[in-house]
Amino acid sequence: MPRAAPSRTLRTAAGAGLLLLGLAEMAAAHAWSLSVSSGSRRLFLHVGNGSVSNANGNFNGATGTNGAINLVQVTVPAAQLGNGTDLAMTSNSTQSTSLYGDGNNTCPTPSSQVMVGAGYRRNGGSASATLGVTSPANLTSAAGDTIPFTEISWTVSAPGSGVPNVIPAGTFSGATQTLATVPGNTYIENCHTFSYANNAVRAAGTYNGRVTYTLSAP
């Protein structure tokens, strides 16, 4: 009697941090770039599920951290181990509408997308904020086996938007990388869809790793 092959499951948690935190959308060829009412200096960042920034484009929501951390994952079928075909990852995010405050349906299928958004409000000056992401070198299993984080990439999309990508598609570097620049009094967002490159046969197990998105301004 044949035995069932052990599964290889990759799970990646995404978190975010700064003054205001929520979680948001991502895109595959487009994004949204929206105006924010000027005011006292404030940053707003969300990755996946999060809290609305308050009324449309004013970023007057309560300061602090929402605390939600979403998970994207994929289980590699035994017959496809290491065959080099990218495998789509699913998400436990339920965030489909924008956290900008206008109710736009930015990520129609959050079960396969993660919404990412970043905004910077200021009273004046020319400084911009920087959106970045930090990933560890590897995803790691309980047995100590590893998969390079460079095996995970993402595409972007934003239905209904004709704005060129302001948060581009990419591949995790296993280090800190800059994703986008956010001008003052601007909010950007789109939906990210993640995939696993499946370029080598890996030991059975559940591999975990967490990436952290940050938004900073001088």
Notable traits:
16 strands, 218 residues, disordered N terminus, single chain, mainly beta, elongated
Describe this structure in words.
The protein is mostly beta strands and 218 residues long. The chain has one domain (8-216). It has strands at residues 8-17, 20-22, 32-35, 42-47, 70-76, 87-88, 90-91, 114-121, 129-134, 138-140, 146-148, 152-157, 170-171, 176-182, 186-196, 205-216. It is elongated. The protein starts with 7 loop residues before the first strand and ends with a strand.
Outline of the structure:
By secondary structure, the protein is mainly β. Helix content is 0%, strand content 42%.
Point out poorly predicted stretches: 1-7, 15-29
Through-space gap between termini: 64 Å
Give the strand content.
35-45%
Task: Note the total helix count.
Answer: 0
Number of strands: 16
How helical, in percent, are the residues?
A: under 10%
Mean pLDDT: 85
Q: What count of structural domains?
A: 1
Largest sheet: 8 strands, mixed
Topology pattern, helix = H, strand = E: EEEEEEEEEEEEEEEE
The class by helix and strand makeup works out as mainly beta
Compute the CA-based radius of gyration.
Answer: 18 Å
* Overall outline: elongated
